[in-house]
Amino acid sequence: MKKTDVSSRLLRLLTGIVLTLAFHNISAQEVPDFLRPSYPGGDTAFCRHLMDKFRVPARMLTRAVTGTTRFRFVVSPEGHLSRIHIINSLHPKCDRELGKAIASAQPWNRPQAQTDTLSCIFEGSATIVPSPDLRIKSVHIHPLRRAAIAYTEAGRRIDSLQLYRTLMVEKMPQFPSGGEESFFAMQRYIDESLYFPPTAIFSCVSGRTIVNFIVDAEGFILYPHIAKGFDKVCDAEAIRIVRFMPRWIPGEEDGAKVPVMYTIPVNFRLP
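The chain above was modelled as a monomer; its predicted structure follows.
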């Protein structure tokens, strides 16, 4: 083998590895774990459930059926499945059995961010083969998008958030006052809004709660959740303060407004 051929193959191999790693990193960022509902036992358990429940006797078919079918379903805020839809049909009987298998799954676990109403749309594919009856050989699922309810000064609005979050951008989001005063204005808002729970006062509890949330491309607060807490009652109060914050100045990247992950501390100190 010529040296140039070896170099060429090595270059293609390294390029493939780099592209694979890059794709993996992007995928990991696109689906934050705290926003994703989970099936008890994980995606593998859900796929195994479909494989176990799906059976179509060959005698019920008038023609040979094999191939890959795609499906879609919605996981509600309570973890129940709805709007089950077969995107491409291999056979009506296969569609019916696959739909029944998906619908019979047990409820999903809610994501860690339980302070907002989240519905997640999943899409999947199932490879169906005769053996001799039809069965599912493999299943793959992934989230498409989610519908969110953002809490604003004017009430509530339903929105759709892209499945990625940015940690650092050229221009970070700012509390409404903007500029150098933004941090101090936010701190004043927290101090004025803070309601020190009586149970914490009686127990002489004090500490700091760290809250993560997303400032979307329009400046609304989405998905506040506890990154680090110290007391359940105080943590709930910190979430309340964050979720009802006024509309922020959104972050920007390359001149475009983008959703950004943000973290703030909420301090609970006894007078």
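Residues 3-30 form the longest helix (28 residues).
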